[in-house]
Fold:
Amino acid sequence: MASKRRGKLAYKILFWFLLISLAPMGFVGVQLVSISQQSLRKETLAMQESLAVGFADTVHKYVTTFRNVLTETAGLEDFVSMGAVRQRQHLNRILQIHQAVLELAVLNDRGVEVLRVGNYLSPNPEMRDFSREDLFQTAVGPKGQYIGRLERFQGLYPTVTVSTPILDARAQPARVVGALTARVSLNPLSTMLAMEFPATGKSRACVVAQDGFLIAHSDPKEIYRPDARLPEDVLKVVTTQSNERGGGEISLADGRRLLAAFSETRELGWIVYVQQPVEAANQSAEEMKSQITTVLIGVVLLTVLLSLAVAGHITRPIRMLKEAADRLGKGQFEDLPEVVTTNDEIGDLAQTFLGMSESLKEKTGELIHAKQELEKFTKFLEKRVDARTRELKAAQDELIKKERLAAIGQMASVVGHEIRNPLAVINNSIYFIKTKLGAAGEPDPKIAKHIKIIESEIQQANGIINEILTYSRQRELKPERVQLNAWLEELLSVYPLPPHIRLDKVFAAADASVDIDTIEMQQAVRNLIGNAVEVMPPPEGGKLTVRTYAPEPGWVAVDVVDAGLGIPQEVLDKIFAPFFTTKARGTGLGLAVVRKVVDRHKGRVDVESRVGVGTTFKLFLPTAA
Structure:
């Protein structure tokens, strides 16, 4: 038990030094940070609420100033008796003095405009009828004044409409004879907010209506948008408060936490909202926490150094013994550290360890030798298994291919025998019918049309039979040495290209010699040209390019390029599989025949395609030796 206690002595010393030094300081630091966070949060909320209340009063004064201007103007004793010219001059002076007023209008006792002036109006604006709208009904009613109708001028700038009744003072008692309305820009409110809450700071403020209409904002990017509104989660919190002013912490849907304050504007019902992130309010507390953490780290480092110095001398023999045990565990029997054999329990342990290391060294040598022999045998066995596996796979693939070709050949034989004979009988019958119809005079156009359809279908069926027979036929190659460019020139000269196809031949300067079976290779190239013609239908058609070049020494390439719609990537890997087709009619053997022919010539075929651009088939053939 004494040896076990000594073995953990260094850790015990380190643990108790850290506990004694860090526990009291950590507790005090946490309490200080908590108290400072609460105090700063209360102070920040109080300051934000004060700002909200102050700006709410500013907003009220701003709007009521224009209401008072309208009231004074409409209350002039001679305003009713003024002519339209004098009224226009008087309203124009208001526009010049108050730049925020965008538009002024005089309504008669029926709510119809009789005069309208503004900085952004045409010379003769159309008069409007406001008889059924609140701005007229409220102004001429018992309340006598109207502030509302929030809109966006030119779809961007927020405005508010203010109206006041026009009284005829000459009548006893005075009676309402109309209304004076003004459309006032609210942009100055955003300017004042931007000065009070600059973009460089963390705080943001806005003025919002009960329906979410954003009236002013400290960030111009937020206010000058056609659909500018306060976020729904913030608007829901602000508009559902029962108090006229207040504040607190709110959590948004995106995970952010804010300290927010609000104040309702007198008479208008608008809400001034001020916010800043909780992190900004806690910045001072975070700085205090950082300082306390720095002190704690310093104390930890000092404590660790002291504890290590105290425990170093006591635990040194045990560390040496542990290091030697680690090296033995890794199989390092040479250059072991010197083990101190003191006259105590640690010395006894060292003597036992030395004896164990010698015995372990001997046994390990025997195991290493046995392992090396086993590894040699394992590698030899893996090579034999891999070789046999490759041979079996190659034999299996060849067997599957032969069985598949045999099945296709048997099917082709049945098709050629069982279908071609009825097709020949049908063809002879059609010929007989055409002969009889020709002898009887001019045949019926409908009958002639259906005869052509039958002949076309017979030709289509014969083409399918030919494709199957071509793919399944196993004939010995009969290579001939030809000049590739000259051979292609001859093939293209007799190929029946339709008039909507433009042929472009781009042959290499050096006419390479190749050893090919001209019959099979002609079938492969004609299949590629036929596919290219099909993907460029009339009337648009397109350009067919046949190109030859030398990609590398000992090889020559033939490219067949079309300008069709291209092949989708998910189909591209399947196009050479037998019987795979995306056409409404076809056997799916055309490209399979191409690959078979090229493989029999020791070459390869590649395809590149871009949807909407076209497809390029590349035939690579070895040049003649």
